[in-house]
Design a protein that fits this description.
The protein has one domain: Transcriptional coactivator/pterin dehydratase (Gyrase A, domain 2, 2-Layer Sandwich), CATH 3.30.1360. 45% of the residues lie in helices and 18% in strands. The chain has 3 helices and 4 strands, in the order H-E-E-H-E-E-H. The structure holds ligand H2B. Ligand H2B binds next to loops.
Length: 106
């Protein structure tokens, strides 16, 4: 199976997709076309469990995070190598990150 090459979000898609994400705490990175967010969990176990859920979804979608974890904190960046910028896969994974995090961050 040949993976479909992702295309960058056009101006219209950005105007629709990015505001809900920035409202949810995602920030557009200043020096490259990417979005990032810091997640704070109760402890390492919850952070790692969340990372595991995100990792499994990333494999399914063939779209992988850039992330940095220290104990209960995870800094995640989404961007698409294919198009050297933001694609719908980044939006999808960012939403998934928030959905799963909501189960921990009560
Ligand atoms: N992850 C991200 N974030 N962007 C990509 O363009 C990408 C990926 N491409 N994971 C996938 C893997 C590609 O390299 C493989 C060959 O499908």
């Amino acid at each position: 199976v040949v993976a479909k090459k992702m295309t960058a979000l056009d101006a219209g898609a950005r105007a629709t997709e990015l505001p809900p994400l920035t409202a949810a705490g995602w920030a557009v990175v200043s020096d490259r076309d990417a979005i990032k967010k810091n997640f704070n969990f109760a402890n390492f176990n919850e952070a790692w469990s969340w990372m595991t859920a995100v990792a499994l979804a990333a494999e399914k979608l063939d779209h992988h995070p850039e992330w940095f974890n220290v104990y209960n904190k995870v800094e995640v960046t989404w961007s698409t190598h294919d198009c050297n910028g933001l694609s719908l896969k980044d939006v999808k994974m960012a939403k998934f990150c928030d959905e799963v995090a909501a189960k921990y961050l009560k």
